[in-house]
Each structure stands twice: as C-alpha cells, then as structure tokens.
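My current task is to audit a protein record that another person submitted. My question to you is simply how this chain folds and whether the tokens agree. This is what I was given:
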Amino acid sequence: MMLPTINTVALSTPEGIRDFLSLNPEVNTSGRFLAALPAEFKENWIMMSRSESLQTGTAQSPRVLLPSVNAAQVFSVTLMPHASFPLADPNVVEYMQFDNSVKRFRFHEINLTAGTVSIDDPKCLKCHSGRPNWDAYDSWAGMVPFNRDRIYQSTVEAAAMRQLLTPWNKSDSFRQVVEQLNLPPGATRRSGGLFDATVNFPFDIPPDAVLIEPSSDPALGSASVSFFDPPAPATMVPQGGAFLTVHHTAIPTSDEGRGVRLFDNLTALNAKRIAKELIDHPRLPVDTRPIALAIMKDCVAEADLAVDGRFVTAAQRAFFESRNGMNFAAVRVDTSDRRHSLPRRKADLQRLNLLGPNGLIEAYGSGTNPSKDASVERIRKEIFRRLPGAFAVDTVTGRMVDREVYGGLDTKIALFRFFLEPLGVPVDKWSMSVRGRSRTYTFADVFNTYATEIRTQLEASVPGPDDCVTLITASKTQFLAIPAAAAVPPYSEVQKIFNRNCTDCHGGFGYPPYTGSLNLSEGVSYATALARVISGNPATSGLMSRITLAETHPLLMPYGGPKLSGTDINTIRRWIFGGANP
C-alpha cells in the first residue's frame, strides 16, 4: 500500500490537515501520519524523556517533537500510553501552528483514529495561551540530550539515545515513529551479525554501514528482529569528554544543536506575537503603546524616573511603586535575581529526569559504568556535563549561568515590568518558558533579537511622529489617565492571573496527584471558591498566605516558583480587600 503525502499548503492549516485525513482515512496512526509528512519533519526531531505536556514523556517512552525547519509547524507525538498522562494516546498528535495572519501560536489536536482535528483545542489553550511553552536557554530539562544538544560519551543519556533509537523490543506505535526518524549526523547503524541495526555514535567502535530497520506496520515495511548492545565496558563518567552534537539541518557545523535552533526559530516568531499583543492591548483608560515604544527606543532611562516630571511625576511614580509593591531599583534587582534562578531550576528538573522509577538512570544505568548509582557526584556529573569553562560567570552576582554569552537587558525589561504590568500587560508571558519559569524573565538575554520586530510594528501603530520628544509627551498624556492606586480590580483581571499561573495544576486536567483543590477557574462554585479566599481580609486569606510565602518554602504557590510578580500579588490583594467580587 502506498501512503499519500500531505502537501505544504494543506499542512499549513488545521483545516488543510482535517481535509487531508478525510480524503485519506488510511492515515490512521502516528507512524502513518509521520510517513505522510514532508522529509523535513523526520530530520530535526527532539526527544523529551520528561514532559510537562499532556503527552507521555518518560525515560522508556519519550515525547517526540517534529518541527518544520522554520518551526512554524511543530507536531508532537506520544509513543506509548502511561498512567501519569491520562489524556495521552499514541494516535493523538498535538499540532502547534504559528498563524501569521493573526501573529499568534495556535494549538490543535489531531485524532488519527477518528480522523478528526480539534481546532484551537481547549485543553491546549489552558496552558499555552497563544505561546509555546519551552524553556529558554540552551539546555532543556527533560530533553535528551540535555546539555546543549550534546550526547556525551559514557553518559546515561548516550545509553538512553542508543536504546531509544533501536526500538526492537518496543510497541508497534513506538517503533513506527522512531524507525522513521533520521539519525543525528555522525550517528550510524551497524548492519549484520548479533547487533544488527544497533545505533553507534562517533566515539563508539567504528560503525558499519547504515541499515534502515523495517517497520512492523505493513504499510511501512516488513517486521524484523534485532538485538541490543551489551553493557558498555567499564569506564569512568568524566565531566566533559567526547560528544556528538545533535545538529539542526540548517546549522550542520555550528556549536549549537537542534534544541537551541528550535528555540531561536520560535523566538523570531514570538517577537511577532509580542508586537501584536502590545498593539491590541486595550487602550482605555491608558494606551500603553507610546509608553512601550518610548522604552523600546531608549527614550527613557532609570535616571529619568528620579526627576519629577521628566517622564512621570512623583505622584504617578508612586502609583507604579504601589502596584508593583516595590520601587524601580527593586524591580531591576528582582528581574536580575529571577533571571539568574533559571539554571538552578532547570538543574533541579533535570535531576528529576535522571532519578526515580521513570528516570534515565533507573532505565539505562546498566549501560554505564556507574550503573544505577544515584549519588550526588553522579547526578552532578550527569547534569553539568560541560566543563566549567563552557559556562559564563556574571561579574555582578558571581553566579554561573548556562549561556556562553551573558548579556541580559535587565534594566530595559525592568522598565517594561515597572510601567506595563500595573497597566495589565503580562510582560512575564513574553517569555516562552513553561509554567512558573516564565516569571524568571529570562528572555532578557535574547531581547535584542526581539527588538527590531517589536519596534517596527509599534512605530507603524502609534499615531504621529515617533521621535523621543513626541513619545515622552504622548506617554505623559497617558499617565494622566491612570486609575487610583488602590482601585479594586474586576475579577477578570484576577482570572487572567489564575489562568496564566494556576490552571495547569488546578484546572481539572486530572494529573496525579493534583485534583483541583484550589480551583478558581472551573468546576467549583463561586461561593466555594470565595470561602477559600476569605473575602475582605488579605491578612487571613489562605490564598494570600500561599502566594506570599518565602521563595524556598515548600508550600509556596504557584508550585515550583518563582513567586508571582509584585503586581500580580497586589492585584489579588486589592481584589480580596474589595470583597472578592465576581
């Protein structure tokens, strides 16, 4: 049976994919869907052995991302069912599409068994809110390989990749996808003998000729049997050492790999989204566009805030300080502190990826000299595989950050935070980091790559000249319309905070062990939610107590930190003080 191929026009919209499936009902598994995709989707795949999606992501059954070369379309598939991912199905494909007509990321669900496409699927929107959820920086917790797309010799990740790419003992749904993925350049398969079809990396024994393993799906080829490598010979697990970079086809000789490239591509698309959201933000009572453009064009500096009337009056500055819960200098320091916290947070997440019954060490430790040893030294080496010289040290804080080039625009991002967040612009969601990591404002490191797109779109949107004198005058006019600092916000503003920060755990997805115990978004009556909030008294509110705990407190909400911004905390406080009205 010859499977059809979906053309790029049909592929670019959910409606086109829906029509393709309607005309080709035989494309009813994830393996057949991948076979129908253009060749580029088999090249730059990424494996996630720890997923924070609805899809399965474990050491034994990773989630597989299948991006187009420019990342305008990203498909993702789960390879096997798992009890911890009740909504995952091997034949249900997640589809992220950048819709250039609306400058927004859209999320759809493709059910291959039913031949249907759920356009703008509500389950996806609860977490994504029009943006991707992948961590910034060049090491993704949960991605294999974690360390800047490098498979290091003698690591548990090398053992994992070798077995995952030789899926002879896996389910049909697993094999039908993985066996179509092109190996990273430099990796090969042995052919013939006991270890037929086993994957080799350049630092292994000299590989034999490439062999394409036939699939168990008759439409994709006939089944065959292969065996897996014996445990690797005894060797230490060094920090650094030989490695294979899993390159993207567009940068085959770069020091960067495909995970970094995917993030770079998404950053270029994300800049369009940010510009569109700034332009579309409600313009009453305050039009934030001239304020944003003045900051973007460096028309305002920190020194201007200290002079009454140069950009804002003392009374207007007091409004922003009240809404932020801190002055501008503190916002700048807070921005830097949050940004520097991400490497530690990702190391903590990668530790979870390595340990436990679904961890890489438990699953693949027998292929390494330390075996299933989970000592601190082993974990440290597996996480921080790169030599210390490959990291950069911030000269201000002395902290090590996992970027080769350090250059965060903390002051500029702090200006956006100080002036825009109190006016309802969620600057933290300019990020593409998943869950609470968006509140680390790590996009400050790459904001220069956003600047041209955002500035150009704002210049076209703001009426009149766009020189600094004009923009500052226009900003001052808008500041005259700011509301009272203690004004009670409508619940809609509070709901946005909950949607951005709380619904992934308290939104009814059914993740164990989360059961919606503090659900102010759905499934709980307003009276029940109100009783939990404790109307009118922030000092005794259970909600306020959980969101204002110390950063290191295990009961801090949102879970995993960092804390909500001062603006969000004060919005909730004002809402409760005003009666917590719906």
Q: What stands out?
A: DSSP finds 21 helices and 13 strands in the chain. Residues 207-216, 221-236, 510-522 have pLDDT under 50 and may be disordered.
